[in-house]
Write a structure and sequence with these properties.
alpha/beta; 21% strand; 242 residues; eight-stranded mixed beta sheet; 8 helices; TIM Barrel
């Protein structure tokens, strides 16, 4: 399997926020989106990172497998589905090893290209940047058609989804936008939980280091009461919220 290689940004041995339980997180290099609130802009360039084969990468993961009995392995990024053949090969190998797998994706890759990897994963962590296509283009440079198509596919095949949405004051943290998204998601039985992630400035220094203008440099994190109000909107729609 080392004939199939991928470009990897970084590895995290003990991730606690990228799916259920304790997880090994593989951050893929390369992303087609340019999210205004990205905290890993250094992962955008598809030529960066290190090239690894499937066997080589699995060899780095397996020594830690005892720690992941209640967790597993998450492919994140960057955008892991932008390297669909490598992602699928890695997921198949991890599945053969009995490890639970999750893919953290924004749905920016056409389903026709990445269906095999999606179907192999045990869980999808799907980040919908915005329900409104125009707002999504403002945030990411693209609309949300791919993310919504991926969500529909998961509903059709019964693939569990943890829906993720970043709360940015003045951008996505708006009652009308949140209510529309909650109403849209309510019929999807594949959505096991909604993770509302408060915007933060922890990645701002990377934008500065890369000399990329950071559009949200003056935006504060949301107030705790605003985050709780957002959670209440989703709870009112019958959705489980983290």
């Amino acid at each position: 399997m080392d004939a199939i290689t991928g470009r990897i940004h970084s590895l995290e041995s003990f991730g606690a926020v990228d799916g259920p339980g304790l997880r090994y997180v593989v951050f893929f290099q390369g992303c087609p989106l340019r999210c205004q609130f990205c905290h890993n802009p250094d992962s955008w360039d598809f030529t960066g990172g290190a090239e690894l084969g499937v066997d080589e990468l699995v060899g780095k993961i397996l020594p830690f497998r005892a720690f992941y009995r209640e967790g597993g392995v998450t492919l994140s990024g960057g955008e892991p589905l932008a390297q669909p053949e490598f992602a699928a090969a890695l997921l198949a190998r991890l599945k053969a090893e009995g490890l639970h797998t999750a893919v953290d994706t924004a749905g920016s890759v056409p389903l026709a290209r990445c269906r095999e990897a999606v179907d192999l994963a045990d869980l999808l962590l799907l980040d919908i940047k915005a329900l409104d296509p125009a707002l999504c283009r403002t945030i990411t440079g693209r609309d949300n058609a791919g993310a919504l198509a991926l969500l529909d596919h998961c509903q059709e095949i019964g693939k569990p989804v943890w829906l993720r949405h970043v709360l940015v004051p003045g951008l996505t943290l708006k009652r009308d936008e949140l209510a529309a998204l909650a109403a849209f998601l309510a019929p999807y039985t594949c959505v096991e939980t909604v993770e509302l992630l408060p915007f933060h400035q922890l990645g701002a220094h990377k934008w500065e280091q890369l000399a990329i203008p950071y559009p949200l440099k003056d935006v504060p994190p949301p107030a705790p009461e605003a985050v709780e109000e957002a959670r209440d909107i989703f709870r009112s729609a019958g959705l489980p919220v983290r």
